[in-house]
Design a protein that fits this description.
Keywords: ATP-binding, Membrane, Nucleotide-binding, Transmembrane, Transmembrane helix. By secondary structure, this protein is of the alpha/beta class. The protein is 66% helix and 8% strand.
Length: 576
Amino acid sequence: MIHLPLDDPGTADHRSPGRFLWWMARGQWRTLAAGACFGIVWMGSQAVMPAIIGRAIDEGVADRDGRTLGWLAGLLLAVGLLQAASGIMRHRYAVTNWLVAAYRTVQLVGRQAVHLGGTLPRKVSGGEVVAIGTTDLSHLGQVMDVSARFAGAVVSFVLVAVILLQTSTTLGLVVLLGVPGLMLLVGPLLAPLQTRAHRQRELMSHLSNTATDIVTGLRVLRGIGGEQVFHDRYRRESQTTRRAGVQVAKLQSVLDALQVLLPGVFVVLVVWLGARYAVAGTITPGELVAFYGYSAFLMIPLRTATEYANKFIRARVAAARVVRVLALTPDHLDPAEPLPSPPVGSELVDLRSGLRVRPGSLVALVSEQPHETAALADRLGMCAPEVDDQVLLGGVPLSGLTRAEVRRRVVVSDTGSMLFSGRLGDRLDVSGDGRSVDRALRTASAEDILDALPAGLDTVVAERGRSFSGGQRQRLVLARALVAEPEVLVLVEPTSAVDAHTEARIAARLREHRAGRTTVVTTSSPLLLDAVDEVALVRDGVVVAAGRHADLLAGHAAYRRVVTRETDPEPVEAGR
């Protein structure tokens, strides 16, 4: 497995698809060079076979020299064995080059996704990333795959041209100039093919986005009766994508046909010229057979060259997509000179809203508009898209610390958190020690989920945890956040999808579990609010009241309306 650091110059300076492909090739030059060497030997062995056969006809069969015929037959056998062995190794290195290129692309995009964090979905669609991991990496691997055969094609073409020039200058020039001429005839198709392939790739990305949205929101669509609307939309987009694919296939079919037609015409021309020279006595019958063999062989380098051009174009389109993702930068960059790290157990302060969270306390944020507290929670963990130096930990702005330190000390678990597919125990044990999972499951009141699974923690989680109900997923996500045991834990509506009895158990256990560490919860549930140390009421992004739940409930009308859902508004007293 190849590991590439994120700060590698190659990953940071991809300004064009061509530069990216060159960087990829340079990174695996050893396997590319080995594949090219075996490709040259493999195709070179085929190139000299007609010469050996021609000599065998002239010096062995025509001259009735059995010894020479036997020697040349043995040489032909040795060359055939060499071709077979080098062909096996060439194929092995071709597959290796494909796999290395494909999985290096996966590593690069995967590391970039981790590097970007929450920035990724805001700057690029999920379908775009999915298409890179399915279609684009295949095209990038294919251009590395065909490179070994392309190197052999170039060398064998030169070798055959030299042999032909030594035998017949006219035929040698026909071959030497004819093959590049045929390539020029194919050239005008390559630019339109690239344009159409780029268009198809765009449509495939949009189609992947639509499919992802439909699958993600299928339950909601069924609830509102919108299945048919989105089905029709997907159908229209898929037909547009299909038509774009047909346009690509039309050009591709013409290119494939020319790969057969042009070499065929070329072979006929060379054989016709060779036959005329043989009749005239300019060349021997053996040389005529050799010329025919060369002409038939040259179809292989020519088709390989056009195949390489075709795959290189597709690889450039794919590389453009990868470059676009690699060029993205996170919303928050590490400062050039990070500030000194605040001590453990420091106070968390948001100057913009006026929120102050004492070390080791359990604080709840309440708002009539839940998105306000959710946005405040994102700011507390430096997860908001804008750079904010108004959030302080121990008097030090979070923006002055490295992202790695902020992520280690402050964890935000919001309602969009999901479970990844794989073994359940591994998905929950983010700390890696395996000791705190059971305790976290108990705090999240998720023991019944585990008991209902035949394999327990060894159960394989389906994609996005779809095999669990909404309340089960929410409790498992809460347990995963608790396992991390950060210094500051920010939970956004952690019990919105569970019943009252389960919520009461979670509220009672959360304080004990997080004793001595800072916890912030956004909620309007009385069960949770009654269990916290302090409640902060947020209005228009500013804390307008703070205190214990019972005190605010008795003395602050606005707070009471939010918590108890009163419909008869009461005037808010000044200063409250």
